[in-house]
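Researcher: Here's the sequence for the chain we discussed earlier.
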Amino acid sequence: MELKRIADEMQPRTMAARDWVFQVIRTAIVRGVLPGGMPLRQDEISAALSVSHIPVREAFRQLEAQGLVRIYPNRGAVVTKLTKEEMANIMDTRILLELGALRTAFPYLTDSVLDEAESIINQSENETDLHVIEDLNLKFHFVLYKCANNDVLLQLIEQLHANVDRYVRQYYKVAEETSNSDHRQLIEACRNKDMVLADAVLRTHLELAKKLLASLDESIA
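Model: Thanks. This is the structure I predict for it:
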């Protein structure tokens, strides 16, 4: 089972069983291993992860709170499947939140923070694993946003990322060069203390992601 392989990647397990199971299933959903509309069987997941049903049920509730799973009475948990309209709404919300995070963080973006962000771009350019590339993309943005010092804001952005990134991951390699170019332009604007340009670069970057989602085949969305 692919879930077992993901679980092995996340060893050693240092967190509570519920949180670990949540992270494994969440990763599987974001990677598209568990696609939208797929029922989640407690027995299968418990066996694959060598845990009881209790942490699996608790993980399902956490995933439902993030919009990744829907729990139906007498039917169980099912991975959510977003419509194109829902994805567009999520991207519009992401744009508002991420621009707000960047503006709030901007005065605190030191050279060391920007150097860290630039090193992530370098890693991405030398990476071939699609999953690692997307993880680095998210890490790049959060290195900047964390300077806003607002954990609630970061959690909301991360949740919205998870809901739509599962649809674009398979196309990410195609857009990687453009993405890294945007990231370098963003870093340069931040180093030059040009908030207006940084804002424009990030907005364009996110709008392109929104357009990609809008272009997806209806059967995927």
